[in-house]
What does this fold into?
Amino acid sequence: MITLDFVYLLAGLAFAGFAALSFFDRANRKRLGNAAFWGLLAASFLFGSRLGDTANGVLVLALILLGGFGALGQGKPATTSTEERRASAILRGNWLFVPALIVPAVALLGTLFLKTAHLGAAPLLDAKQVTLISLAIGIVLALAVAMLWLKPKLMAPLQEGRRLIDTIGWAAILPQLLASLGAIFALSGVGQAVGIVATRYLPLDRPFEAVLVYCVGMAVFTAVMGNAFAAFPVMTAAIGLPLIVHKFGGNPAIMGAIGMLSGFCGTLTTPMAANFNIVPAALLELPDRNGVIKVQLPTAGLMLMANTALMYALVFRF
Amino acid sequence: MLTLLGVAVVVIGFLIRLNPLLVIAAAALVTGLAAGLNPVDILAAFGKAFNDNRYVSAVWLILPLIGLLERYGLQERARLLIARLRGVTVGRLLLVYFIIRQAAASLGLTSLGGQAQMVRPLIAPMAEAAAEQEAGPLPAETRFRIRAEAAATDNVALFFGEDIFLAISSILLIKGFLEQSGVIVQPFELSVWAIPTAVLALLIHGTRLLLLDRKLRREAAAKSGGAE
It folds into this structure.
């Protein structure tokens, strides 16, 4: 059976490649920092399950210290010039899109068809992780097609990948770290504490007040935690179920659906949701780390009002 | 109550723009200590969580492919494609992408799109090319604004589309949590009630995108007016 370990092996090898190429990049003054950072991440992917929890903790701490105190520089692997790229784009035409589209196509087909596929008696893929595994298979296939067609130097994909990962820099591990912080928050009962504060100090005597506090609370708590999934159980246990559903007789499906979507409004506003907000700013080489969030703020505010109004209009009626 | 100190560390750390990695480490330490854990236990819990969440960073596996295709002119090709079409504006282009992305997500095809796969190599260069076609070379500030709009469009369309699909993780979480609390709802009901919000998201963000065109046009007019 193909499991997530297959994806982790590939990712580990890619990061190991970035680390090795960084190490020999004399153009980067901080090449040792880059090599150490990507090398540790490679070790996490390749051996993380065999290390103990404390060893993994030490590994993360080293990553945080390297990234946090500016040990990473930006590698500048040789790539093509703008003119060469234009010429290649004209020469190769729209075929250039094909490898890029193989990835979502394979991910799609895999998700639809491979979930239930069997090899003998054993399932072919780990059904719970089918999307990520299909995505990885799509990447491997697309890379193979691109290599056969374009015939670049063997190391070109790793060098180009390193060029991109270095523009992202330490922000590349930010989403994973924030997910880990979420686990510490859960372990320490942060959610329950927020629920207590929300119910103790806010007015909740009328149906509209309960809806307002629930929707806005979902957004704010999501913004703090970076993830609506962490906010939903807390806010729903504290306000949604006892007040909107049980006290005022609201429809639980409407409350749940629109409550979660109110949380997503918070996701649009917060650096804590790094993979949606901070990583794209790095990927697009924006000078302002919060550039994407600023553009999203008006939509987030309007959508939160829309969700609150929708929930109030619908939840007590159906 | 003391555990909320960790949340305060996060908020303050981000506000005064300390390095986020250090902020997270400090928040984890403060939260864990407030909950009565000792530092070694916190380190172990954090290490375990980091290891369990590796799939989050596994998406970077796409970078060698995207980088290789960029080496052979993928972004330039995306620009050329837009330059050939007439009547394309930043707002209209992003609105079309919004509709495709939201519709695909509502069918559960959330992997069609994404910041590394679609926005950086294709959508952002196309949006820039559309703006250049109208207004000529762009000032850096406008260029960055347009890139940010492309990223935002991907996010908004995804967030307010995916919940229409029955088997998405957020729907399963809602169902699972309500069930634990003794309230049974069907995934179908949940996804139906995500539709009104999806429609409003299309209207609200779509309007903003079309207004962006007007704003860019005004800025371009002001710039060329000032040059004369």
Strands of chain A lie at 118-119, 122-123. The CA atoms of residues 37 and 63 of chain A lie 6 Å apart. DSSP finds 14 helices and two strands in chain A.
